[in-house]
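Session log. Operator J.P. requested a structure for one protein chain; no other inputs attached. Running the standard single-chain path with C-alpha cell output.
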Amino acid sequence: MAVVLIGVADRAFPLNTSEDGFIEEAELFVIIGMVLAWAIAAVKAARSHDEFRAGIMAVSLAFTAVSFAGVGRETTWGAIYGLDPATVNVLMMTSAIIVILLLAGAFTLIVTHLKVSKAFLRRFITSRPMGWILCGLILFAIGAAFEENFLKVEPHQLFEEVFEFLAYLCIIFSAVSLVSTLGAKNSSS
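Structure written below.
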C-alpha cells in the first residue's frame, strides 16, 4: 500500500530523491531528533527511581550512540557539505570516539548491574518501546531492499529514503515511549 501511494505521489509531485534531496535532508533533522530523544531518555532514567534505571540508561546510551553515528553517516561526516578530507577525517575520528564512549558506558551499566539487567531485558523485550524498535528495523530492511533495487521498482531511491525516514521516526517514538513509561512510574511512586 505504501509503495503504491509513494509511487503515485512521485508521479504527481516529482521529488528530488538523490542523496542530497529533500527527504534526505528531512532524515537528517529526524536523526538529530533521535540523538536528542535518546539523550533525554538517558538523563530521565538517571534521575528516576525506577528499579531498572541502569538498564534503561544502557539502552538509551546505546541508541544515542547509534543515532549519533547515523548523523555522521547521513552527512558523510561533513563531506556532502564540501568539507576538506582532513576535516572529514577529524570529524569521523571524533565521532568514533564519542560513539565508543557511549557504548562503553552502556556496556559498563549492563555488566555492573547484571542481575537487574537480566530482569530489565525480559521486561524490555515485551515493551512498547521494543515494538517501535522492531517496527523501525523492519522499515530499515525494506528500505535496504529498495536501495539495492532488489524489488525492481522505480523510483527505488525515493522508496528507500521514505522507508528510512519512517524507520527513524519509529526509533524516536521508541525513545518517547520509554520516557513516558519512566514519567508514569515516577508520578505513581
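Operator note: The radius of gyration is 19 Å.
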